[in-house]
Amino acid sequence: MKIKKNERLPQLDVFRALAILAVLNVHASSFAAGVQALDSPIYYVYNFMNIFFKYGTPSFIFLSGFVLFYNYYERPVNIRLVSSFYRQRLKYIVLPYTIASFCYFLVNQYINQRLIGVPYSELGIRFGNAWLTGTAHTHLYFVFISIQFYILFPLILKLLQSKQWIVKWAIPLALVLQWGFVFINKYSLQVPNKGSYAITYLVYYMMGAYIAINFSRIKSWLLNPWDLLTRRQKYWTVMLWSTWLMAAFIEIQLWHDMRSTGNSVNTLWYELIWNVHSMLSSIVLLHAGFLIYRKASRRVVAFLTRMGGLSFGIYLLHPIILTLYRRFRYNIDPESIGYLLFIIGSLLVALFLSWAIIHVCFKRIPWSWVFLGKDPDTVSPKAKSPDIHGVNQRNGLDS
Question: What is the distance in angstroms between the CA of the first residue and the CA of the last residue of the chain?
Fold first, then answer.
């Protein structure tokens, strides 16, 4: 049976869970990998956590492109669609982003002693600049990038609907534009916070769009068990996962050498290997999400599905929890095993305390969507249907 374009894919919530876990790993290990534990005998572990999981944000961008084009590609672009689309994003994305930006802005101004005695007009200008650049706190650039893609979405949708050749060349064109910006910025513009601009992540978004538009061609690869895959599908699956791991460990080693010895290479090499690693990660996470949903126990699937459904709120909330948690480090030696346990603890506390707070807010506060986004109506594992699994479909990568 052909999957309808508007049919919900609960496997994507597993994808979201894997992506938010990656984000938490990077943020939990940031101080250890960057400054505090450089002389630790287990420094490689901290660097691994910080670099291997750098695919979190690009994967979310990829997923955003996939979901939007999966849901909208077959629909005509008209005033009704555009107005409904923007109304939902303003309500559930822009409003929480604005509130989160304001709260983090005040906290950071207070910590840096730039709040007391400062005229309101100056604070307003600072906040406006932070809001317009996604820099009110280090993690909010991702939401700011998403908003940029939302603004561009109707135009990109109309463009891809207009000509099939544009869809075919969407990923190469995105790579050209993205890397054109990389070179121009490095050698000419040198804009600060270049990661706050959507063009830096354009290829991930267009990958998601391309795969969504061509989902019928790859769904058997995602939905079928290994023994029902064609020889070609098995070959490309092995190549995907092995190349992904290879790219990841090259990136890990590059950053380890630079951080531990000071030896570095041209910044374009770091950009390139991160780009390759993140592009492959997006496809790997998509495959992993469908695989876990099919093979894991109902309890594990329910756990990951709920985590994925709450990932936006977790993303907004976890940095303040990490900040408070780190105040309890006291005199833990960064070279000790105790420090590793402290880092792992920060990851777990950031995840589960954020989760608990969000759960209580959605249960007890009717207007919690204002600062946490939409309460997800996640699909129970019991709702798995044969149509979603489609184990007998073979029109996949071999076509």
Answer: 17
* Residue 37: Cβ within 10 Å count: 23
Q: CA angle, corner 56, sides to 51 and 58, nearest 5?
A: 105
- Integer CA distances (angstroms), 76 to 72, 79, 158, 160, 229, in order: 8, 10, 8, 12, 35
In the 3-class helix/strand/coil scheme, how is 28-49 assigned residue by residue? HCHHHHHHHCCCCCCHHHHHHH
Q: What is the pLDDT of residue 6?
A: 56
Contact status, residue 50 vs residue 83, Cβ threshold 8 Å? no
Averaged pLDDT of the chain: 91
Q: Which residues contact 131 (CB under 8 A, 6 or more apart)?
A: 98, 101, 102, 105
User: Is residue 85 a contact partner of residue 153, using CB atoms and an 8 Å limit?
Assistant: yes
User: Is the overall model pTM greater than 0.70, yes or no?
Assistant: yes
Distances (CA, A) of 210 to 13, 224, 395: 20, 21, 17
